[in-house]
Amino acid sequence: MNTAIIMGRLTKEPAITTTQSGLHIARYTLAVDRKVKQEKENQQTADFIPCVAFDKAAEFAGKYFHQGMRVLVEGRIQTGSYKDREGRTVYTTDVIVSSQEFADGKRDQAPAQTPAPDEFLSVPEGADETDGLPFA
């Protein structure tokens, strides 16, 4: 079985490309914490795991993922190789994404707008009273 589940922070914005046939590809790297035990103290380091998402997952990553955001990814590990410009063989290891999601809650990403005890939130002009109510 080849399954990888990792959670980490995006090291930079996802790089989105589109093939000639219209397939979207997102490449991003997750910094995944790893604890290393040393004689006197615990030292924390990170592994940098390259991830590749295709099609709808790539579009989602390009639209919603940003540097520093914590993301949970499930996929498979794929290895490969290619020749660089000098003719040397370069080996690659990537996680091919099958599912991805936000690992931080909404409250961890941006402060919520809360009214003071004696204030009300303003309702936009033209909004219907029942907009967004599941029982209306």
Can you describe what's shown?
This protein has 136 residues and is mainly beta. It has one domain: Nucleic acid-binding proteins (OB fold (Dihydrolipoamide Acetyltransferase, E2P), Beta Barrel). It has helices at residues 55-64, 106-109, and strands at 4-10, 15-18, 24-37, 42-54, 70-83, 89-102. It has a five-stranded mixed beta barrel. The longest helix has 10 residues, at 55-64. The N and C termini lie far apart (48 Å).
Short description:
By secondary structure, the chain is mainly beta. It has helices at 55-64, 106-109; strands at 4-10, 15-18, 24-37, 42-54, 70-83, 89-102. The protein has a five-stranded mixed β-barrel.
Which features would summarize this protein structure in a list?
single chain, 136 residues, mainly beta, OB fold (Dihydrolipoamide Acetyltransferase, E2P), 5-stranded mixed beta barrel, 2 helices, 6 strands, globular
Topology:
Blueprint: E1 4-10, E2 15-18, E3 24-37, E4 42-54, H1 55-64, E5 70-83, E6 89-102, H2 106-109
Parallel strand pairs: 4-6
Antiparallel strand pairs: 1-3, 1-5, 2-3, 3-4, 5-6
Q: What share of residues is helical?
A: 10-25%
What is the radius of gyration computed over CA atoms, rounded to a whole number of angstroms? 21 Å
- Helical segment count: 2
Q: Can you tell me the CATH superfamily?
A: Nucleic acid-binding proteins
Mean pLDDT rating: 83
Number of β-strand runs: 6
| Proportion of residues in extended strands | over 45%
Bulk shape: globular
* CATH hierarchy, class: Mainly Beta
